[in-house]
Amino acid sequence: MLAFFRLVEVGKFFRIPFSNCVQIITIPFLINLKLLLRRPRFNLYHSIDGSRSAKISMPRKDFTVDGNVARCNWMITSLSKDGRIMEARRLFDEMRDPDVITWTSVISGFIKCGMIEEARRLFDRVDAKKNVVTWTAMVGGYIRSNKISEAEKLFHEMPNKNVVSWNTMIDGYAQNGGIDSAMYLFEKMPERNVVSWNTVVSMLARCGRIEEARKLFDRMPERDVISWTAMIAGLSKNGRIDEARLLFDRMPERNVVSWNAMITGYSQNSRLDEALDLFEKMPERDLPSWNTMITGFFQNGDLRRARKLFNAMPKKNVISWTTMITGYVQEGESEEALKIFSRMLSTNGAKPNQGTFVSVLGACSNLAGLGEGQQIHQIVSKTVYQDSTFVVSALINMYSKCGELKTARKMFDDGMTSQRDLDLDLVSWNGIIAAYAHHGCGKEAILLFNEMRKSGFKPDDVTYVGLISACSHAGLVEEGLKYFDELVKDGSILVREDHYACLVDLCGRAGRLTEAVDFIERLETKPSARVWGALLAGCNVHANAKIGKLAAKKLLEVEPENAGTYMLLSNIYASTGKWKEASRVRLKMKDKGLKKQPGCSWIEVRNRVHAFVVGDKSHSQSKLIYSLIRDLHSKMKKVGYEPNNVFLSDEY
Q1: For 132, 548, 612, 635, which has the most beta carbons within 10 A of its beta carbon?
Q2: Whole-angstrom Cα distance, residue 442 to residue 468?
Q3: Looking at residue 63, what is its pLDDT?
């Protein structure tokens, strides 16, 4: 649901975290002839996680002596920029003697259009004219295509390298987590410029090696505004916000991105008042400044101030709207998220993007709003995002949560056989496995998992969350344990709290509560509320007061104001006949002023939503409804159903 970002990463299925919505410091390396002649120009791009990507830029100035060749070069560059690469190629093929600028322009054009193989075929031609810019463009193209091994091989084959070539390869390693390789290359560089230093400082700060980043920053022979901003962002991200502020105050010059980075730092460290104070002191604000502040409010659960600031914005872009929609979805206000999306469409301003659609479809999933989801599906089908795997996965999730599992599966199957060559990736497979898990279809989820592997996809952490959850809901205990064991032995996948919670839920549902407790006690990390909550739910199902008391105690240490925990513990005592203990728990809950939210259900009939809460008699047809319920209960008893009345309470 977001900036939405991979969205993420719903757990991780479709959600786009805020970090993808606003304020990044990026240092793109422009492949440009001018880089050979003067110091390179670098731009800042907005985001929060500090990610970067190599940018391919077409030559802007042509020093060709032949006027005809120069004109053709200009036309090829213009066509490539507009994405009309095949027209550029035809013009190139018609030229009698293209020069090195021509070759570089058309190769860079193919790279920019994502046609890396075609670019390489041109690059490898016997008659190709290449210089250091052409080679660097090709290396940058492989990095852009996430083919780091090919980039590395080509870099080492380069007959000549300049500082931009070295910076491009270092940045490629940084993007792909090759921190040590990047540092090795940095140390080997024959000469460095400020961009070289900025790249490694940002990289180290981003991966948590903040002390090394600070030492390098202090060693820098020359710093620019990007250097200072990168260091401030790194310190803030690693919790050293006061140190970041000292650095911010020392900056010889600041730009709007520097201010945004400092505001983001305060927001990330839950110091909203200082973030707002800085925001109000800004000499100038851009759209990311407003988006950053709104994101900060949402990250700290302050919906009121986020909405107030959003309404005060002089201008809004798609990130502003998506931030609001995502924020309300993550705070459980999905209905409000849909209203904001509707308002966005009616303004005729910003058009929804991939992140917007993923977030708003998440809102439909939460509300089981099939009608709204279908309407949004219609809007998606008229945009380029109908081919986005993230949007397709969000649609699969929406149809699944709305009870339309067949439609969800049809969407997945259509994607597999689509004439549009929709490349369903791991996100799509994870989405459909999660859909079957949601419906308790464990065997079908396992079949899909096996099919996914046969198709050449390697499961990730999200895959295993869906798979183990499917086994849990379907009572396939041994299969679930097998897949968890497989996950742990894999080594390449980070085992996180979602996996632990799924395993505890698996054992809890099957009544293997002692095994679940043993597993929790062996965990090297502190168990989360989700883990203890799963254990408590299992104790409630199987009326285990001893383990239930332990789980409730641990859960209340993490979430002391959770009324649901008291209710579950009270129910466990009541189900085992321990009425005094049950009463004591409820009195404690009453003394704390806690009340459990009453259960609520709703149904949509003829475009009208009918909502019901426990004991509700406000509906205009309540007498008829309760008459039908009594009739249904009577029929259930005749076939052998025995209600469990120990959990009923007039007061609660």
Answers
A1: 548
A2: 9
A3: 46
Q: Count other Cβ atoms within 10 Å, centred on residue 38.
A: 7
Helix 256-268 to helix 287-299 angle (10° resolution) is 0
Nearest by Cα to 393 from 70, 42, 10: 10
- Stated as kind and residue range, the H or E segment containing 610 is strand 608-613
pLDDT for position 1: 34
Q: Distance between CA atoms of 272 and 111, rounded to whole angstroms?
A: 43
Pairing of strands 608-613, 600-605: antiparallel
β-pair partners for 612? 601
Chain center to CA of 300: 18
pLDDT of residue 643: 61
Name residues whose C-beta falls within 8 Å of residue 622's C-beta, 6 or more positions apart in sequence.
616
In degrees and rounded to multiples of 5, residue 463 shows phi and psi of -55, -45
DSSP string across 60-92:
-----SSHHHHHHHHHHHHHHHTT-HHHHHHHH
392-419, pLDDT tens digit by residue? 989 999 999 998 999 999 988 887 765 4
CB 365 within 8 A of CB 397: yes
- Specify the pLDDT at position 649: 47
Q: How far apart are CA 478 and CA 443, in angstroms?
A: 12
Phi-psi region of 403 (alpha: psi -120 to 50; beta: other; left: phi over 0): left
| Continuous segment of H or E residues that includes residue 426 | helix 426-438
**pTM for the complete prediction?**
0.70
CA 278 to chain centroid: 28
**3-state DSSP assignment of residue 112:** helix
| pLDDT tens for each residue of 354-372 | 999 999 999 999 988 899 9
Q: Which DSSP helix (H) or strand (E) runs through 602?
A: strand 600-605
Cα 25 to Cα 48: distance, rounded to the nearest angstrom:
7
Contact call for residues 106 and 121 (beta carbons, < 8 A): no
* CB distance 284 to 314 below 8 Å: no
Residue 612 in 3-state DSSP? strand
- 339, 544, 562 from 559: Cα distances, Å: 31, 21, 6
Strand partners, 608: 605
* Cα-based distances in Å from 402 to 135, 331, 609: 52, 20, 14
The per-residue pLDDT for 347 is 84
Contact in structure between 448 and 442 (CB atoms under 8 Å): no
Name the β-bridge partners of 613: 600
List the chain residues with pLDDT less than 70: 1-67, 417-424, 592, 594, 596-597, 641-652
Helix orientation angle between 334-346 and 354-367, rounded to the nearest 10 degrees: 140
Q: Quick check: helix, strand or coil at residue 435?
A: helix
Burial pattern 477-491, b for ≥16 Cβ within 10 A else e, equals bebbbebbeebeeee
Task: Please choose, from the candidates 220, 281, 273, the residue with its C-alpha nearest in 3D space to the C-alpha of residue 249.
Answer: 281
